[in-house]
Amino acid sequence: MSSYAPTQTSATATTHPLDPLTTVEIDAAVAAVRADVRLSDRVRFWGATLDEHHARAVVAGTEPEGTRKVGLVALDYGRNEAWEVDVVLGESAECVDWRAVDPRRPGITSEEARAAAQACRDSAEFREVLARRGIDDVSLVMVDAESMGGFIPEKYQDRRVTWGTVWHRTDIGDNGYARPVQGVVPIIDMQTMEVLEVEDHGIVPLSEETGNYESGLWGPDREGLAPLEVVQPEGTSFDVDGWKVSWQGWEFRVGFTHREGMVLYDLTFKGRSVLKRAACNEMYVPYLDSDSTQYRKNFFDWGEYGAGALTNSLALGCDCLGVIHYFDTAVLGGDGAARKIAQSICMHEEDDSILWKHTDMRRDVGEVRRSRKLIISNFQTVANYDYGFYWSLHQDGTIKLAVKLTGLMSASGIEEGQGAPYGRVVSKNVQTPNHQHFFGLRLDTAIDGPLNRIVEEHAELETDPELNPWGNAIRTVRVPLLNEKKAAQRNDPATSRHWRIESADQTNRYGEPTGYRLLLPNTSKSFSAPGSVMSRRAPFIDNHLWATPYDPSEQYVGGQYPNQAEPGEDGVQVWQQQERSLDGVELVLWPVLGVFHFPRPEQWPIMPVEQIGFMLEPDGFFDRNPAMDIPAPQKHCAVDAPATDGCCGS
Asked: What pLDDT band is residue 640 in, cutting at 50, 70 and 90?
């Protein structure tokens, strides 16, 4: 059984400067921009974003109370111009600054992608290429408009262009991603919606096998699955006030942006600050196949499309199980209309097995505490793939992020009997290529206050034989990373490398700076050849951790506008060349999670969830275990277990 959290207040009214934008605010900002005489009537938009720096100034009292500053990107296709526009919302909406942007550079909206797909279906050249393959009903053809960074032909360098991956459905309900149309690559001008050309790399037979995944298509449903009910008869343990949440010593604010989707702000535990901001800041996905319809594939999914606009509405009992509190959010569509995403963020509690336990065998008595975690989650669908982001807070002060990868693998067509040297055959005439997923996180730290530093720690053997006569003395080696170039780090599980984020001015009772430990168990390296497009486009994946001092202009690890950017021109790898001090600063960490995806037949036609993540845990932040105050469990015995006064079996 699942239900809505019964006593929580609704997050509908703006009551704090960091609250996400509402549809009313977005519409007001768009109206102010449209009213300006410098724009023609052919305007599209890419995102509306709350100015968080201004919001924090309002909190601090240095900007007027009741004002909100919004940044919009307007693309004027009538005049081949683009603008960043700052709008201040108060009693009325006022445009206060306009900054010109290269009109090729803003991300691709869902509205543009649909228009590009329709432009292909309307193109005589495109229909002719499909007809050679026996496809006459173009209404059943899917075209995904893909960003073309790094692979734009010289003759189209001055245009805002995209290319299309093409799929065929046997009927309107078919899963087109199971039937790639191999070798057909349309190139589309996104301003004029003109199909500039259609590449044809040769005819490959379409797969005849279904890729549908509805219940009952692959045989009868599995039997014997008894109901699993999650009930909280006394309600939840969290409290919600608008966008502010309190739970088990934790307090934080939930946020939402067009670029990143879900954001967490101002996390404190037991009254002490831990993080100022936490979000998945960018996702980069390079495909590792020289196939004619795969070699261009390398995407900044957040910077070129936007996580907010791709966010799912979540369903009770399906996406979220238990007693749930939902947050509704809003995004700006490419057409300039604000859109509400109902139930886009899910929050609930989960049992998390044992928190701590010990049995005193001499006295035959034991103590055990069960763990519970609070999960704040959302899901994005990026064409074929689906990504879930599950932030969890724990009763011992630990913060974790689980990234869940599922959905449909990107595929290409192959001849019958042809192998897949750079991937895996998963169906008749279908292979899925090797590829990688990199998730660039942003953590604005506030460990026991605003000023922090970072220290790398690893294990080393004591080499002095006088100090280590038995060969088993292992030191913890601490290396302060005092500037941002030194803080460009790679993981090394062989030496148990991790990083300690320390307060610059608070110490524990042992005289150590109070701190938190960052662990990155899921990392990967870039396999692309030096000098290749993939290697040059996303240099941030070359390290597993970066650190910079806070600068409101440095918002995205892969750069502000990666779409059609000069490879590597912007991003953390550029900022860190300043070698700014990290010794007692407002610190921003940029961890990079990575996974190399070797496809498996068991992941076809739809992937069981693959999970990666990271952990931030107290390390000398407390003088002892902060979870000593968790009450002992109540009796929850099996039906046939003997009754006891305490836990079952104690």
From this structure: low
Do 411 and 430 form a contact (C-beta atoms < 8 A)? Answer: yes
CA 632/CA 296 separation, integer angstroms: 57
Which amino acid is residue 590, in one-letter code? W
pLDDT tens digits for 578-598? 999 999 999 999 999 999 999
What is the Cα–Cα distance from 6 to 234, expressed in whole angstroms? 10
Phi (first) and psi of residue 121, to 5 degrees = -65, -25
* Confidence at residue 377, expressed as pLDDT on a 0 to 100 scale: 98
Residue 642 pLDDT:
54
Distance of CA 222 to the CA centre of its chain: 33
Q: Is 510 in the active site? A: no
Average of pLDDT values for 83-93? 96
Catalytic residue among 77, 284, 326, 385: 385
**Is 385 noted as a catalytic residue in this protein?**
yes
Percent of the chain residues topping a pLDDT of 70: 95
Q: Quick one: pLDDT at residue 12?
A: 44
pLDDT at 10: 43
Hey, what are 502's tokens?
A: 């320390």
Kindly state the tokens that stand for 459.
């294990």
**pLDDT bracket for residue 15 (50, 70, 90):** confident
Element (H, E) at 29: helix 23-34
Q: What residues does 273 pair with on adjacent strands?
A: 268
Dist. CA 53–CA 346, nearest whole Å? 26
Angle, helices 110-122 vs 124-131, to 10°: value is: 70
Least Cα distance to 286 among 147, 482, 404 occurs for 147
Distance CA 82, CA 74 (A): 6
Cβ-contact 86, 51 below 8 angstroms: yes
Q: Could you tell me which residues are beta bridge partners of residue 165?
A: 144
Pairing of strands 161-168, 141-146: antiparallel
∠ Cα 78 47 390 (to 5°): 155
What pLDDT score was predicted for residue 637?
A: 53
CB neighbours of 613 closer than 8 A, spacing ≥ 6?
Answer: 400, 401, 402, 403, 521, 522, 593
Catalytic residue among 266, 301, 444, 619: 301
Strands 81-89 and 93-101: antiparallel
Report phi then psi at 578, rounded to 5.
Answer: -70, -20
Buried b (16+ CB within 10 A) or exposed e, 344-364: bbbbbbeeeeebeeeeeeeee
DSSP state of 219: B
Asked whether 47 and 107 are in contact (CB, 8 A), the reply is yes
